[in-house]
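[agent] plan:
  1. take the single chain provided in the ticket
  2. run structure prediction with default settings
  3. attach structure tokens to the ticket
  4. add a short note for the reviewer (M.T.)
[agent] executing step 1
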Amino acid sequence: MLAVAITEAPRERLMTFFTCFDNHGQLIARCQTPAQIEALRRRGRPIATVHAMKPEEAVVCTLTGSPAEFDEEQ
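[agent] step 2 finished; step 3 output follows
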């Protein structure tokens, strides 16, 4: 039987973060899941558009712990 060593660590799956904007293009929130976006809509937040963040933009959310924490700091 031949033993094979794994030399490459498994790649981390990147999480997609979303930015939510109102009709005037103002940032409303940053969310981690579509369910969070829908929860904001149910609470009456005027979300007009949602964009997935680029990986380099999402680093900010990852470093702050969560998009909610980042939003609370502003």
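[agent] step 4 note for reviewer: The CA atoms of residues 36 and 42 lie 10 Å apart.
[agent] ticket updated
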